Amino acid sequence: MSEQVYISGSVIIVEDNESLRSELEQTLSENGFDVRGVDSGEALNGALLQRPANVVVLDLNLAGEDGISIARRIRTAFPEIGILMLTARVMSAQKEEGYQNGADVYMTKPARPAELCAAIRNLLRRVVAAPQKSDWLLDRTALTLSWRGTDTIELSPNEARVLTILALSSNYAESTELEAIFDSSGAEANDNRLKVTVLISRLRAKISPYTPDLNPIRAVRNRGYQLRIALRLATP
Fold this sequence. Notes:
With about 240 residues, the protein is of the alpha/beta class. It folds into 2 domains: about 5-130, Response regulator (Rossmann fold, 3-Layer(aba) Sandwich), CATH 3.40.50; about 135-235, Winged helix-like DNA-binding domain superfamily/Winged helix DNA-binding domain (Arc Repressor Mutant, subunit A, Orthogonal Bundle), CATH 1.10.10.10. Helices cover about 40% and strands about 20% of the residues. It has 9 helices and 12 strands. The strands form 3 sheets. The protein has a 5-stranded parallel sheet with strand order 2-1-3-4-5, with helices on both faces. A 4-stranded mixed sheet has the order 8-7-6-12, with helices on one face. The two termini are about 20 Å apart. The relative contact order is 0.12.
């Protein structure tokens, strides 16, 4: 591959300081990267569902879900993504925690623009070259769930949406978040919880033959559901 392929990689910046986020977006854009900026883990989920990325530049000191939690779940759902932690946390124990929870590169603020761009380019080379393996792969375009690259399970659009939400959840997905995939207007709005229950039951029936000793989707009492298989989301 040419160097230009690496330079044009897709990058998402997760930074809740708007001024710094805009500055980083401008720097990376000027250096040839396709870059987007978001301010939270929830916004990152939305950006990844809208369009995949090659690298996530992640601040750790975020309001709400912190960067360590975000890195841990993104690493599970998208193992092919490069994660560059860009943070003010400078202690060696903090760096070790970052690497243990999914970081490929750990840089401290303020980072020199040239150094940051070089780190992202180098990370893109590794990300593009490395083959990825996972027992479970969800293809949201083809609406299939594959097990070990052999058996393929066909999914409905809503089943694929629910699995995606579960895969991107830090611990469990709230029932209300899952109910939101259904039409919330009209008289049927009150039936959405039942629809989720039925859909989860169908997914369990499809996955359980491959996980005889494990309930693949666990109900979290009065809260929602937790995915208990390592699921990778395919990128187009």
